[in-house]
Design goal:
1187 residues, alpha/beta, Rossmann fold, Helix Hairpins, Alpha-Beta Plaits, six-stranded antiparallel β-sheet, six-stranded mixed β-sheet, 23 strands, flat
């Protein structure tokens, strides 16, 4: 065993909670500056383990509480966790033992493994773990070292006695001495013998008169005994006759009571039936009015639904006609559009051909005009220039301009040609996008239609859910009312049981606990109450109830463990009530031998039960016989020594006690319990049904919420789809507008491109003409060729002008025709689109109407069924029949009341007679008891054959009394006193002799104890001396040490020279110490001559020697090496290291020598008045000490 961990919170300088450890089972060193908390840690261990800390005042407890920078903590604790793998702590097989002490100003408690334990129990536990007063040095304080070496010899002797454990011998010796003192005192009292002898002589003188008096007393006792016997027989006879009559009349009274109960039960049933019929009549009237109101309401609803049905049929018919009409129009429009497209194709082809021809003519016309202008300029050039050179110069300059213009025109032509290609490339892209969006638009329209259809269906489903919830709510209210009524009936049934409220509460508490257990566990271990596990004839109910009493409501369990489990659960839940258990595994069943008597049959033979409950039923009913009357019961008790009971409940125990019998207004507990069980069964069924309704309600509620969620989702989707459709439509229009812009741009760009192509052709022609002109002379007139060309150009211009005019007229006509046909096609396409949209809307509308139509038909059918059901219920509410039934019940009730009066009259007479008999029986029983008590008082007498009558005996009693009166002045107690004195004298002698023997034996035992004590001190001293010398040599190589026992009247010497038998423990006066720090014994010195360091070495050797004599599992050293020099500190550390193989050491130090041999290292620091202790490395420990 060793200390594994220490947990500190709020103790001294430790604020915590802080866990210190795990400690090594060997050598542990704790280092730290002065004031850092080493001493607080050391004191924490003492706080838990040392007895001197176990009795603290409130002020002392408060002083241990941590007080940091703020206020003092309210409480603190120190917990020491031991490794108990060697099971040194007894009575607990756990590998870890935790002892915690918690204190506060008003608190001081110990916990052992988290369980409360007293200080006395802790103190008893420590010695078994090796922490006893015999070796108080397992915690070594600094001052203890000084006490050992600076203490007197007699103090060291007391320490040696503690180590030897002689306190038990001393306690035994003192106890025997204390007991022996009064015994010796009484042995010296000789006056007691004289007093007894004197009293004996006086009583002998009075003995003669007393003998005559005693003889008369005997005669009087005999006469009184005979008179009491006669009276006893007389009253026994009277009691037997009275009991026989009582049994007969009790049976008659019970029968009358039974008849009365039956009549009252029938009256109660009839009254209940009358009340029930009244309620049924009232309910029937109320239901009739309600049903009429409901029927009128349903008829109005039916009418409204039929109107709605007609409206729906009309709407569907109209929509279908419109659908057919639109479909026909769409078919016609499709045909017209096809015809228009067929008509448009040749017109477009002709228009395009004419347009191309017109472009060609226009181009040729422009070229011809330009050539014409050039020829005219050439004709007038003679007038502009003086000579050819000037003309050529101008032509060359003009040709340069033309070249420049040709370059620019080619550039622009290429640019517009490229733009035209780009614009033409955009057209199919826009058309594809428009087609995609149109398809998307149609799909969105389909989605919207589907969403609207689904949303309509979901809303109809919501209406159905609301209706279902309403119906379930009505059913739930009805069941809750029924449950309230049943619970009210259950309370009445609980009162009718006739048991205490605590027992009833216990029944409910057990039921609650069993509900919390697992079903298979309950089925295997709990078997219900006793009353649930047997059956019998109703005639036996009274006998069974009187026999069992409240045991009928004891709970049968398989084992006592399960019963305890139920009780623990009840206590944990703080459930009320009284509960009793019968554990099958705890009942010892023995076969009972029953008599073969028809007048006294075993009660258990009349009970039916399962074999496994035989022991339980036998323990309650096995020792009871059922008898037909009280006389038979009385005889059976005397013969069979078993309890007997009559059917009326009169019970006679085997000890002779009589109880029970007729009880006025008695109600059977078993009958009441069965009625209660039926109510409980109805309650369970109603609760199950209510639970089913609630589950159905939850299901409908869940479906309603899911449906509402779907409605919300569909509404969101519908809004989103409408927004998407709107955006798509807008996007289609925007793209169509862009397409139109692109087509316009294409036409414009193509026109510009053609203009540039024509201009380029004209400019190149001009350039060619100018080049030709450079080769010619400057003439005043055109050349023949030029004139011919000029004439041809003029003719061509005229011809092209006519042709152009003709083409333009044709194009205008074709364009008008083309526009007209295209407009018609667009109009018809737009109309077709609108009709298609309208057709889709009609289809959706028809679908909606069809769904609504189906639901309307279902609603109308449901209303028809409800009206049919209401009509049926109206027919069933036969109020007249109920009134007739009520009148019949009232007549029967009147007859039963008359019968009840007759029974009551007979019952009262019997009851009066039974009460009289009860009074007589009670009187006889009292007389019998009085005579029995008188006989018991008289005691046994010597019987004689006396033939005397009662009168003669009374005369004889008077004579004896007169004689006794004459002797009334004598000491009537003389014989008794004489016997007592004689007895006292003999006892006194016997006691005196025994006391002499006891005194001698006690003195011998005291001598043995004293010798054992002396022997124990001597042996311990010798062991201490041997170990002290060995350990000192290890601490001081070359040194020597010895212990010297001082004996009164003897010189100091070793025990080898003295016989133990000649020494008494009281002769020891002290223990001295002599040591030498070299090999010479002659140089041994006494302690007063040594330095403080040398004294510390001696004290440490003494303590470790004590450990050798009495093992302790660990040592806690508080700076034990503080006064040693470095060499001796190393020896001390080396010694501890050698001992730590078997013993744990925890040492605080601020010296470096112990670090060399230690296994674990811990450092203490203090910050803001709070100490922190943690495991550190050897290097860090060395740094602690260096700093």
């Amino acid at each position: 065993m060793y200390i594994e961990k220490i947990v500190i919170e709020g103790f001294r300088s430790y604020q915590g909670p802080i866990t210190i450890g795990p400690f090594h089972p060997g050598y542990n060193v704790i280092v730290g500056r002065n004031g850092s908390g080493k001493s607080s840690f050391f004191e924490a261990i003492q706080f838990v383990l040392c007895e001197e800390y176990h009795k603290l005042s409130p002020e002392e407890r408060t002083s241990f509480l941590h007080e940091g920078t703020s206020s003092r903590v309210p409480s603190c604790f120190v917990e020491i966790i031991f490794n108990n793998s060697d099971n040194q702590f007894p009575g607990d097989s756990k590998e870890k033992i935790a002892i915690r002490r918690t204190i506060g100003p008003k608190q001081d408690q110990f916990l052992l493994n988290k369980k409360r334990i007293t200080k006395e129990e802790i103190l008893k536990l420590f010695p078994s773990a090796g922490l006893s007063a015999r070796n108080p040095y397992y915690i070594i304080k600094q001052r203890q070292l000084l006490e050992i070496v600076n203490g007197t010899d007699d103090m060291r002797l007391e320490q040696l006695k503690e180590i030897a454990g002689v306190s038990s011998f001393e306690n035994q010796y003192q106890e025997m001495k204390t007991l022996l003192h009064p015994t010796v005192f009484y042995l010296t009292r000789d006056d007691l013998f004289e007093n007894v002898n004197r009293c004996l002589r006086q009583k002998e003188a009075e003995e003669q008169d007393m003998k005559q008096y005693a003889e008369l007393k005997k005669q009087r006792r005999l006469v009184e005994f005979l008179l009491s016997e006669m009276e006893l027989k007389k009253f026994t006879s009277l009691l037997t006759k009275a009991q026989r009559r009582y049994s007969e009349q009790s049976a008659q009274l019970i029968q009358a009571q039974k008849n009365l109960n039956e009549v009252e039960e029938e009256i109660s049933k009839l009254a209940g039936k009358i009340n029930g019929t009244k309620k049924e009549i009232d309910l029937a009237k109320f239901n009739f009015r309600e049903l009429i109101t409901k029927r009128e309401k349903f008829l109005i609803n039916q009418k409204n639904w039929k109107i709605n049905l007609e409206r729906l049929l009309e709407n569907i018919s109209k929509d279908r006609e419109a659908q057919e009409k639109i479909e026909a129009e769409l078919e016609q429009l499709a045909e017209d559009i096809d015809n228009r497209n067929a008509e448009l194709i040749p017109i477009k082809a002709k228009f395009e051909a004419q347009e191309a021809e017109n472009k060609k003519v226009t181009h040729n016309f422009a070229v011809a005009e330009k050539l014409q202008k050039e020829l005219i300029l050439k004709k007038h050039r003679k007038k502009l220039f003086k000579n050819k050179e000037e003309r050529d110069t101008w032509i060359k300059e003009h040709m340069q301009l033309l070249d420049k213009k040709i370059t620019e025109s080619e550039k622009y032509k290429a640019q517009y040609e490229k733009e035209l290609e780009v614009e033409k490339g955009k057209k199919p892209e826009f058309k594809n996008k428009i087609q995609e969006l149109e398809d998307h638009f149609k799909s969105q329209l389909t989605s919207i239609i589907n969403y609207e259809r689904s949303l309509y269906e979901r809303k109809n489903k919501r209406s159905q859910h609301q209706k279902q919830r309403k119906d379930l709510f009505e059913k739930k209210n009805i069941l809750e009312e029924e449950l309230n009524d049943l619970n009210h009936e259950l309370k009445k049934a609980d009162q009718a049981l006739g048991v205490s409220k605590d027992v009833i509460m216990g029944l409910y508490s057990v039921a609650k606990v069993l509900d919390s257990f697992k079903q298979h566990e309950v089925e295997d271990n709990y078997h219900g109450m006793v009353v649930d596990n047997f059956s019998a004839s109703e005639d036996l109910n009274t006998a069974i109830e009187m026999t069992a009493g409240n045991r009928l409501f004891y709970n049968i369990v398989e084992s006592d463990e399960f019963g305890m489990k139920i009780l623990e659960e009840m206590n944990e839940k703080k459930l009320p009530g009284v509960v009793n258990f019968l554990a099958i595994n705890r009942i010892n069943f023995k076969e009972q031998n029953y008599p073969a008597d028809d007048d006294a049959r075993p009660l258990i033979f009349s009970l039916q039960f399962e074999d496994k409950f035989e022991a339980v039923i036998n323990s309650i009913f096995g020792k009871t016989l059922v008898c037909k009357n009280l006389e038979c019961a009385s005889n059976a008790v005397d013969r069979y020594k078993l309890n007997c009971i009559t059917l009326s409940g009169a019970k006679i125990s085997k000890s002779g006690d009589v109880a029970g019998g007729y009880k006025k207004n008695y109600k059977s507990m078993i009958v009441a319990y069965k009625a209660r069980s039926k109510i409980l069964e109805k309650i369970r069924e109603t609760e199950e049904e209510l639970k089913g309704i609630e589950e159905e309600f939850k299901r409908v509620e869940k479906e309603t919420n899911e449906n509402l969620t779907e409605i919300t989702k569909l509404e969101v989707k519908l809004i989103k789809a409408n927004d998407i459709q709107k955006n798509v439509g807008e996007e289609i229009e925007r793209l169509r507008e862009q397409l139109r812009d692109v087509e316009g741009n294409c036409e414009e760009t193509e026109k510009i491109f053609n203009d540039f192509a024509t201009d380029l052709e004209i400019v190149r022609g001009n350039k060619g003409n100018l080049e030709n002109e450079l080769q010619q002379d400057l003439l005043s007139q055109l050349s023949d060729e030029d004139q011919r060309q000029f004439q041809e150009v003029n003719d061509l211009i005229v011809e092209l002008s006519c042709e152009k005019k003709k083409l333009v007229d044709q194009l205008i006509d074709l364009s008008s025709e083309k526009y007209r046909v295209e407009k018609l096609v667009k109009k018809e396409i737009f109309k077709k689109k609108k009709l298609e949209e309208r057709l889709e809307e009609l289809k959706v509308g028809i679908d909606k109407f069809n769904v609504e139509l189906r639901m309307t038909k279902e609603e109308i059918e449901e209303i028809k069924n409800k009206i049919k059901e209401i009509n049926k219920r109206i027919d069933e509410e036969k109020i007249t029949d109920l009134v007739k039934v009520k009148i019949k019940f009232e007549e029967d009730l009147k007859k039963k009341l008359e019968i009840k009066e007759e029974i009551l009259e007979n019952f009262r007479a019997l009851n009066y007679s039974v009460e009289e008999l009860e009074a007589k029986i009670k009187n006889y029983q009292e007389e019998l008891a009085s005579q029995k008590e008188k006989l018991n008082t008289l005691g046994p007498v010597a019987r004689r054959d006396v033939q005397m009558s009662c009168r003669e005996l009374n005369e004889r009693l008077k004579e004896v009394n007169a004689s006794l009166k004459a002797l009334e002045n004598i000491n009537i107690d003389v014989l008794h006193q004489f016997e007592m004195v004689t007895e006292c004298s003999e006892d006194f002698k016997e006691t005196h002799e025994k006391l002499l023997e006891d005194v001698e034996a006690a003195r011998e035992l005291m001598q043995i104890v004293s010798e054992n004590k002396t022997e124990k001190i001597c042996s311990t001293f010798q062991d201490m001396d041997k170990h002290f010398n060995r350990i000192f040599k290890k601490l001081v190589p070359g040194g020597s040490a010895k212990l010297i026992m001082k004996i009164e009247g003897e010189e100091d010497r070793y025990f080898e020279d003295i016989s133990v038998q000649v020494i008494e423990a009281g002769n020891f006066t002290g223990v001295d110490i002599e040591v030498s720090f070299n090999e010479s014994y002659e140089e041994c010195q006494v302690l007063e001559q040594f330095s403080s360091g040398q004294k510390s070495l001696v004290a440490l050797a003494f303590i470790l020697a004590a450990q050798k004599c009495h093992f302790t599992p660990f040592y806690v050293l508080d700076e034990s090496d503080y006064a040693l020099d470095p060499e001796h500190r190393r020896s001390f550390a080396k010694l501890i290291a050698s001992l730590s193989n078997k013993i744990q050491f925890i040492s605080t130090t601020f010296r470096p020598e112990q670090l060399t041999y230690a296994n674990e290292f811990f450092g203490v620091q203090i910050r803001n008045k709070v100490s922190y202790l943690q495991k550190i490395s050897k290097k860090e420990a060395a740094a602690f000490i260096e700093n």
